[in-house]
Write a structure and sequence with these properties.
Low-confidence stretches: none
Strand content: 25-35%
Order of helices and strands: EHEEEHHHEHEEHEHEHEEEEEHEEH
Helix content: 25-40%
Shape: globular
Mean pLDDT: 88
CATH topology of the largest domain: Trna Endonuclease, Chain: A, domain 1
CATH architecture of the largest domain: 3-Layer(aba) Sandwich
Number of strands: 16
Structural class: alpha+beta
CATH class of the largest domain: Alpha Beta
Distance between the termini: 46 Å
Length: 355
Amino acid sequence: MPVNHALWSVGDQPVEVASGRLPSEQMLEDMIVAQPRILSGEWMLIGRQINTGNGGRIDLLAIAPDGSLVVVELKRDRTPREVVAQALDYASWVERLDADDVAGIYSRFLPGRSLSADFAARFGGALDEDTINESHQVVVVATRLDAASERIVTYLNGRGLAINVLFFQVFQHGEELLLSRVWLVDPAEVQAQSAGSWQGSDKEPWNGEFYVSFGVGADRRWEDAVRYGFVSGGGGAWYSNTLRMLDVGDRVWVKIPGKGFVGVGRVTGPRQMAADFEIDGKPALDVLEGRFHRESADDPERAEYFVPVEWIHTVPEAQAVHEVGMFGNQNTVCKPRTPAWRSTVEQLKARFHVS
């Protein structure tokens, strides 16, 4: 059904806030550029009004922490079905961009700035030129949405294409206009689709084994995860959202980025926010040595989230397993569909003596 929602004042006599209207959808684009968190707090804008050379212009282009690209297309005066088709056409162009192309787009968006330096400052890690634009997703921005668009987007997502709709609604509060937003599809689901949509013709059916990236440092210690049985992610919704993909019984292969694979285990419970996660009946943050973003424990977006795991085999960080060609990705959890993942799992089974 078409997306629609209402806004009410809070009090003994709630009053519905009247719907409003932006002067133009161009204004919405300007607002997103001025404050990218309107679109998402997890992406960095890298381009605007990008000429594809095919007679079209991509409204906005963003990059995610794993180097994947996000094509953002505003509905403007087109029908929802027309804008979905246009966005898919642009995605086919974006798929062919290499690292130099992406850097060039950014230099035209912010002349004199370095994509590598700004990416590192924004996400706290280096931009890997070998993995940039390995995947992408499409976001349609609309102030109105119809049932046909919902069916199209749902259909495409069900067949592995990472596409979503960000629906905005405007409300009139006195002389002030207020803007609200809601996603058509859970962003975690679309992120998972994107993480599994690597380019090329070597895509294959998922082998049922989950990949988990476990970043270590002051906020996260592998020794804690081994001792108390868990995997985790936090510091932003992008890092914790995909933990929801894991169900009880799922097998996970854990890699420390930059080091190698360090463990395999079975999930024993659902994702839990740090404030709710317990170890031996005690609050986890009172037990763990790492910080695990405890300063954000009450913030649903930035808090650390935990998934309990029963370990089958682990090795210390210093003995992490890494071989040329082994799979890697910055998403906390993903379901890889490449021969490299199947090969990686087979190698790890032998190294970890797992059937």
